[in-house]
Design brief:
- There is one protein chain.
- The chain is about 25% helix and about 35% strand.
- The strands form two sheets. Strands 1, 2, 3, 4, 5, 6, 7 and 8 form an eight-stranded mixed beta sheet that branches. Strands 9-10 form a two-stranded antiparallel sheet.
- A hairpin with a 2-residue loop joins strand 2 and strand 3.
- The longest helix has 18 residues.
- The relative contact order is 0.17.
Length: about 170
């Protein structure tokens, strides 16, 4: 399994196609939820992909939060369910947030997937709410400064893109 972390501008056309195909298949078609799945947040996100045999196995995007120290995880999706891919890509997202210097991570979890996030240490910080007709709950993970594992305590290249004055993403 290969882990890939890229800004929007670093993604190849094939990678972007695979990301949008998987996200749309699950979040729009499978969940019968017509909404604008591709949005401007993609331009500033750090995109984390798990690839297996050249194909996209799992994905999430990591965004800077609204307050200092916050990172936001979103669009967590796996090509195969119950294969550990969601947990693996989530662990990589948490690792990337630590590497970027985040103090905590927030996300809006679909209620049926709450257990995945709880196993990773996230705690619910809101009551259930509807987003695009699907029950969600806001969750938060505090990141300790003494984290362990590969890359712990090291700051790496910032893979968030910053919009320029015209609203385009730039590195």
């Amino acid at each position: 399994m290969e882990v890939v972390k890229k800004s929007f501008d670093q993604l190849t056309v094939r990678e972007l196609f695979q990301i949008y195909r998987l996200r749309t298949a699950v979040f729009v078609v499978e969940q019968h939820c017509p909404y604008q799945e591709v949005d401007d947040a993609d331009l500033t996100a750090c995109h984390i992909l798990l690839r297996e045999g050249g194909e996209l196995a799992a994905y999430l995007r990591l965004l800077p939060g609204a307050v200092p120290g916050e990172a936001v995880i979103g669009r967590v999706v796996a090509a195969r369910r119950r294969a550990g891919l969601g947990s693996r890509v989530l662990a990589e997202g948490i690792r990337a947030a630590r590497e970027q210097g985040a103090a905590f991570i927030t996300l809006a979890a679909q209620v049926y997937a709450r257990g995945l996030y709880q196993k990773a240490g996230f705690r619910a910080v809101s009551a259930e709410f509807l987003e695009d007709g699907i029950p969600h709950v806001k969750m938060r993970l505090e990141l300790s400064p003494q984290s362990t594992g590969p890359g712990a305590g090291q700051k790496t290249e910032n893979l968030y893109s910053q919009p320029d004055d015209a609203g385009r993403a730039r590195d």
